[in-house]
Every structure is written in C-alpha cells, then in structure tokens.
Prior knowledge:
The chain is α/β, with parallel strands linked by helices. The chain has 8 helices and 7 strands. It has helices spanning 21-34, 52-57, 75-86, 107-112, 131-148, 164-171, 181-191, 215-232; strands spanning 6-14, 39-46, 65-70, 90-96, 119-125, 159-163, 196-202. Strand 2, helix 2 and strand 3 (65-70) form a beta-alpha-beta unit. Helix 5 runs parallel beside helix 8.
Amino acid sequence: MTRPSKDIALVLPVFNEELLIDSCLQKWINTFTDLGLDFEILVVDDGSWDKTPVVLSSYIPDSRIQIITKHNEGHGPTILRGYRDAVEVATWVFQADSDSEISPDEFSALWDLRLNNDAVIGWRVKREQSFIRKAVSRVAALSTRLFFSSTLKDPNIPFRLIRSDTLERIISRIPRNTFAPNLIISGALKRLKLSVVQYPVQYHERTVGETSLSNLKAVKKGSQAFVQTAKLSRMFS
C-alpha cells in the first residue's frame, strides 16, 4: 500500500443528491479546514441520473476533491470503492453520507477520540424511524452480535473514523459486491480485537429529497445483509 500523505480522507457516496451535495461538500471543507487538517474528499457518484454530476463538476478544479464516477451498483459497492482509494491517500479514513442526516459539526469530537484507538464509531441518538426500518436496524445490530460478538450500538452507521492500515486489512477480505460492508467492518473490528470507541451523534431527518430505499426494499436488503454477514464472518475467524 502506498504510504498515506494526508491526515484524513473522507469517503462520500452519492446518488441523486443534486439538492444537498453542494452544501454538504462546503460544510465538510469548512470542518476540515477549521481543524487544520490536510484532507482529501472522495466523492463516489453511483451513477446519478439527476443534476448531481453537474453540481460536482464545479469541484473538479479543487485538488482537495476527487470525483469518482461509476455505474450504478448500490450503496455498499460504492462505499467499498471509496474505501479502497482512500486507504492509499490518508492516515485516517472517514465515511459519511451526503444526506446531511448527521451534521459535520459532530466530527471534531470523533477526531479528538482517535488517539490510542483503531476506530471511532458513531451511534445515532433520537433517531425517528418507521416500525419496519427500526426492525431492520435491530436485525443489523443482531447480526454483528451473533456472528462477530460485536456490541456496537449502531454497526451500520455511515459516520465512522478508522485508521487506514486497519481498514485496508479488513476490506481486503470483503467482496466488492457486498451490500452492507460497514456491518462486516464493524464485526471485524471486534473479531480482530482492535481498539474501538463509540460516540453518540445527533440524527436529523433529511429535509429535502428522498431516501433511496422504500420500506419493502429495506426489508429485502436487510435480509440480504444478514445472510452476507453470516457468510463473511467466516473470513475473519
């Protein structure tokens, strides 16, 4: 692996977020700049068909922003693509979503907790969900507890800071088409006996746009993630 030169690389998966992506990027740029970090933001566009590519094109001249465009594969493969590039860029890799449901204002606390740890994982508080989505989230947590003995409260959260060498060690075993790689990563951190700290972050309902998964799709994908978690847990025995 190439020796990382940046302090942090942010992996930001994007799909049809024309209304939010500009403000999201500006907030992250400001957050990292205020902390005095040498950073790179990897925006991974999962085949957006709205005006997201047009908005992102304005950031091409900014050397701190890398725009990665790929055909549509889903959230999991998109995250993994970003992770695989990010571990070669920076000492720390952070993943967030572009829907502004967790504010960049929460990041500085996670950054302060990184010392003497391999990962800092957020967990969402005051999260309002439908009954079905709440059940899917609980099944996700159950899967990492059953197959990895992980006690993380929010194992699939898209707000996580991990050392690049640690992350590279884990994702090298995860297939590129995995639906919920963050579940596997959360479990692997426990299985490999790495140092992980959790931190509560405030969750906000998105104010514009819509989530890409309906309740029915969430159930189907949740079942798929459960099966994948069981299968892939054997990779870390």
